[in-house]
Design goal:
The protein has about 110 residues and is mostly helical. The chain has helices spanning about 1-25, 30-40, 45-65, 70-95, 100-105. Helices cover about 80% and strands about 0% of the residues.
Length: about 110
């Protein structure tokens, strides 16, 4: 679990830094670029579409893990728009909350006692 937590921390910090540098150089104009690449039907758009499906899967899992509660749906929106920055922080939080049980991290209250 220590390795996994370390990985999540490295991912979170590196994406946070990369995002800050990107915003400082290009501003917050992500959506027109993101969807413009998809509209062009080239490889950057294919990558963005594929990535968007990963975001949707992450959001769906987050909502499911939280039993589609109001909190779960709010977290799902954060998962979709926050990407790996959100997911790395959320999983890191869950590893501590679940006392290191990966089963509890992944399926939450559905895990056997």
């Amino acid at each position: 679990m220590t390795f996994f937590r370390g990985f999540l921390l490295i991912v979170f910090v590196s994406i946070l830094i990369y995002t800050a540098v990107t915003i400082s150089g290009h501003g917050l104009n992500l959506l027109p670029v993101f969807f413009g690449d998809m509209k062009a039907m080239a490889w950057p758009g294919q990558f963005n579409f594929d990535f968007m499906m990963f975001l949707a899967l992450s959001a769906l899992w987050t909502a499911w893990r939280n039993n589609y509660s109001t909190k779960g749906l709010c977290l799902a929106v954060a998962a979709f728009f926050g990407g790996m920055l959100f997911l790395s922080a959320y999983l890191l939080f869950l590893t501590f909350r679940a006392d290191g049980s990966l089963l509890h991290v992944m399926i939450g209250d559905r895990a056997p006692a």
